[in-house]
Design goal:
Layout lengths: L1 E14 L2 E6 L2 E7 L6 H13 L3 E2 L5 E3 L1 H4 L2 E6 L21 H17 L4 E3 L7 E15 L5
Parallel strand pairs: 3-6, 6-7
Antiparallel strand pairs: 1-2, 1-3, 1-8, 4-5
Helix pairs in contact: 1-3
């Protein structure tokens, strides 16, 4: 699984010009699942992101996690994170998991965050979405389970 994690002061996602998910301070997570991913990766990634110490403490050092700050998460599925651009000019999505395999992993990721008491808003899996955010910092990280398993 791959996640682009952005610290935000606010974020929202729209489908057909209607806001379907909105958060205040916290994290926007763009989440992509590969053909090799399973439940273990989904749970590990959710735990990792919830515990990332990327929020400032009273001395402005990045020492606090989302769990420490009570922040929120907006999770948006994004299969294009598995686009391979090494050959030619058209990305290959061969490694991106098909929807029937990816959606349960997406839901497991979201549910794990909710189990931790985090407020989670979501996009609409597989829909064409518009994502709006105010990146804070800016702080943007790429977290990839492929480099951890």
């Amino acid at each position: 699984m791959r996640a682009v994690v952005q610290r935000v002061s606010e974020a929202r996602v729209e489908v057909e010009e209607k806001t379907i998910g909105r958060i205040g301070p916290g994290l926007l997570v763009l989440l992509g699942m590969s053909t090799d991913d399973g439940l273990e990766q989904a749970l590990w990634l959710a735990d990792k992101i919830a515990a990332l110490r990327i929020f400032p403490d009273s001395e402005e050092k990045l020492n606090l996690s989302l769990l420490d700050t009570g922040g929120q998460i907006l999770v948006v599925s994004q299969f294009t994170l598995w686009g391979d651009c090494r050959k030619g000019n058209r990305p290959s999505f061969v490694r991106a998991a098909a929807g029937d395999r990816a959606e349960p992993l997406y839901q497991a990721f979201v549910n794990r965050l909710k189990e931790k008491g985090i407020f989670v808003a979501t996009g609409s899996f597989g829909a064409m979405m518009q994502v709006h955010l105010t990146n804070q910092g800016p702080v943007t990280l790429l977290v990839d389970t492929e480099k951890s398993f």
